[in-house]
Each structure stands twice: as structure tokens, then as C-alpha cells.
């Protein structure tokens, strides 16, 4: 479901991209330090954004180094870590663990069960350090699984459950910024859930899998309505973001929120429009 919170690389300066990559590498190293190689397998651009944003808000002390890795064994590259790299690493592993268990319970995907067991020893530590977050993630994923089993068509309800999870992840501590961070994460989570459903329409229609957008597919101007809903989600997300007193790396963060996050949606829409044109039709066709 993740993989939407990414940069629009052509719109970044070289210096900004190098800095962004240093945070990504820092998160990777934090995952290895905290959870070993299995933790590194959960690495995502989504949590890199969380590190960037929390770093910009709280301005912690950074540890800047140069390192090599298995992916780039010959190239030394910049690596930036701080306490939010460790926090995001723990949250990423926790979310991946519960999602794997959820997939095992729903689809009996053995690979997901095996991966969950690989993460389990580290999850015990994370649950102890963040009991409220662990409980909320587990509860909301359970509710989401129930909605999917019942094939609920209420898009606002089901996307809101995932929004509750991302909202909780965004709140590092209870302070003056908690409300805006939670709102930002909530609407960003709703965007991710809906965008993921939009991307999987053809696959889910063929397989018969649950997708809350399928019940709206035959309505007039379906594609335009999806875009309108996603735009409203990001408008609310960015409204909360702009209230935060962030100056550090602000151009990278805005690149992601105002441009990068739309990259996959734009590719999917362009592909569908091209397929529709080949058939001599307008708009989305399954």
C-alpha cells in the first residue's frame, strides 16, 4: 500500500537530491542497526519523508557519515542519521509486521507469515517501547480487514482507518505540534489508501478482490471524481503541513507533497487514457 510518498526527482536540485538520498541511506542503516537485514527489507521512501519532516520540525543533532552498502559496494555515499531515523525504522518494522500478519489471516500468504516471524523478535522490543502505537496499528488494521471482508463501500470509513494509522505514526511526541502532525498524517494516509485502490482497479475487478472504488466505477465522470477526492485529501494534508514551523529542507518536503506524491497517480491515469484512446473511447475503461 505504501510507495506513494516519493520525490519528483527532475524538479529537485542536485544538492537537494543528494541530501534526500543521505536521509534514505541513514534510514537503511538505522533499520540494519535496529533490526538486522530483515529490517532493511522493509525500507521505503515513505518513511524517509517522515524522517525528513520530523527532522525539519524538531531540528535534532545529525550524524553525517560516508558509507558503502551491498547495493552500492564500490561507491561511498553520504549518510545522515538522527533519532528520527531510529524512530521511523521502528515504526516501519512495526507496520510491516502487523500488515504481514493481516495478509496471512486474510489470504494465508505463507511468505508474509514467514517474514512476520523474521521480524517478531524486534517487534517485541518496539511494542514495549511504543505500546500505544502498537495497539492502535493492530486495532485499525483489524478493523480495516473486517471492512474488506464485509466489502464495505464506504470509502471515507475504510480510508479513514488507514488514515488513523498514519496519523499516529506522524506524532512522535505530545506537544504543540501533535494536532497538526496527526491531521497531516491522517489525510495523507487516506490519500495513500484511495490512490492504491485506484491503481489496483483492473486487477481487483478481474480477481474479484475487494476494492472500495469498484462500486463507483460505472458512475459518470468516475476518473474526475477520483481526482477530486484525492485533491481534497492532499489539500487538507498540506494545510496542516504549512502550519508547522519547518524551514529546514522545506523545498524537498514541498516537492514531495505538491508534486512527487502524484507521480504514480499521473502514470496510471496517463496509461488508462492512452488505452481508452486506442479503443476510441473517452475516460477510464476497465
Structure description:
The protein has a two-stranded antiparallel ribbon with strand order 1-2. Helix 1 crosses helix 2 and helix 5 packs antiparallel against helix 6. Helices cover 69% and strands 3% of the residues. The mean pLDDT is 90. The protein has a single domain, classed as Orthogonal Bundle (Farnesyl Diphosphate Synthase), CATH 1.10.600. It contains eleven helices and two strands. The protein has 286 residues and is mostly helical.
Just give the CATH class: Mainly Alpha
Bin the helical content. 55-70%
Net shape = globular
- What is the topology, as strand order, of the major beta sheet? 1-2
Radius of gyration: 19 Å
Number of strand elements: 2
Kindly, what is the distance between the CA atoms of the first and last residues, rounded to a whole number of angstroms?
Answer: 21 Å
- Secondary structure class reads mainly alpha
Mean pLDDT: 90
Secondary structure tally, helices: 11
Largest sheet: 2 strands, antiparallel
Annotated CATH architecture: Orthogonal Bundle
Provide the succession of SSEs.
Answer: HHEEHHHHHHHHH
Count of discrete structural domains: 1
Report the portion of residues in β strands: under 5%
Q: Give the low-confidence spans.
A: none
Q: State the CATH topology.
A: Farnesyl Diphosphate Synthase
